[in-house]
Amino acid sequence: MSLSVGPTIKVYWQHAKRYPWLMTFLLGVLVVSNVFDLVPALLSKRFFDTFALGLTGEALTTALLGTLSLMVGVGVIGWVLSRFSTVTNNWLQPKIIVDLEETAFGHLLNHSYRFFSDNFAGSLVKKIHRFGRAFENLMDQLTWKLISILVAVVGTIIIFYFRSPLFAGILCIWAVLFVIANIFVAKWKLKYDLVRAELDTEASGVLADAVGNAVTIQQFVGKKFEEAKFAEVNNRWRKMATFTWNLGGVNDAVQAGFMIVLNGTAMYIAIHLYVLGQITLGDFALIQTALITLFMRLWDFGRVIRDIYEGFADAKEMVDVLEMPYELVDKKGAKKLAVKKGEIEFKKVSFAYNDSRPILRDMTLEIAAREKVAFIGPSGAGKSTIIKLLMRFFEVSKGSISIDGQDISKVTQESLRTLVSLVPQDSLLFHRTIMENIRYGRREATDKEVIAASKKAHCHEFISELALGYNTKVGERGVKLSGGERQRVAIARAILKNAPILVLDEATSSLDSESESLIQDALHELMKSKTVIVIAHRLSTIMQMDRIVVIEKGAVVDAGTHDELLEREGTYKKLWSIQAGGFLP
Question: How large is the C-alpha radius of gyration of the chain?
């Protein structure tokens, strides 16, 4: 398993460069601040060399206090610069993180119906948040760790060079070996970090799936089964996390060994140079102070490299989604759909979800402007698929679908879905207020218009009985409402939208007979002056349609009014006979 960091760097840089002056200021202040952190080593040399000058009494005190004053002054300047960088970073990072998550969210919503069918909602949510947090991690490693490490290494080498080129050469060789070893271990560990990230996403998906189906779990007494399923994936994550953390521990131990070797070697050479008179007593203080500062910066280097790779691993899943081509895109130069009449034509339409499962086969059908058409047929015949193709949730495999002579594949998806109103079999609501859910049909609608639509859908009655009325939150997917109440809210939303083409896909299937009778008048009113497509298994609900189209095996096999179809021996008559209990004249 490999990780390409290029795409992630590209995405992050596209968002970071929106704030060029802040980024430049932050990086500049950090570099200067870290340079000031090297000055105490030079002042330590000066402090201890003062003792070798032979000064005594007040002269010695004055010289030492002068050096001490410089140390304090440098410390204060460093502290001020550090505060500037902290404030700047604390304003900049959240802005970029929010930008990244908004980009990811916006991109995600443009993916296709199939994409969301193939992915857990919980996993996608986690990918977005982890994408933003990965940037935070990477930015922290760059600004607070890598810059300080780079300045410390380069600065220490320069300082050592002016005292002894030998010291500088040894430190250069040591630094190169140190960096190579850490990068090698981090890259070796990366493949396991990717597995850990995937297991984390899998665990989130299992958890979200179970929480979203909590009622089903209770109905089928599946608590222990789900606990075992969640524990199994969590246990795999635990093992991988433990393994990767142990690898990090081994790297820390090797890193500590490197530092012991460097410190010992430096002091050994320093002793010989001092005996030869080539360095002073203050140089010992310089070497120790510089090395301690360097080691403090480098101690986390292995973890920094690992955190950087882990950050890229955490971001990878969302970057993959960002790079994934959309299944459906507006064609170049696509125009907005204009609906004046509402004529719909399916011309030799074929479609398959996969090569082994054809759904529609050369289906041809014309629906006149403002005609009310019902689709009936056995389950799996392709009725709901026709609706998904009309909404352009999927692209036809062959043939075309047009509205008022405009091929829907050549108009913008937004304009198409704006002018087609769909009430599906299971209408899901947002975990928001009832007012917000109904207003989603036309977001600029006033409260008065929302209430008017609600009354037409016969949901105003039950809403008024709620303690908070229209301000009642309906729960995730609308679970606080009954199926019939949820469906009436969805119908109210469609009434408010008032699109010229209306599609009802089993829209009354979850209503009891009383509730259905309540909204029949509303639906009749809603269907006026509209082209309407209705899918219903309950044939009593489609008897008054202008035309009933019988679909079998992805093709139109019959069509006519209710009375005309009963006069012919066919699927419709069989279905009617079954639902009517066989009492036909």
Answer: 36
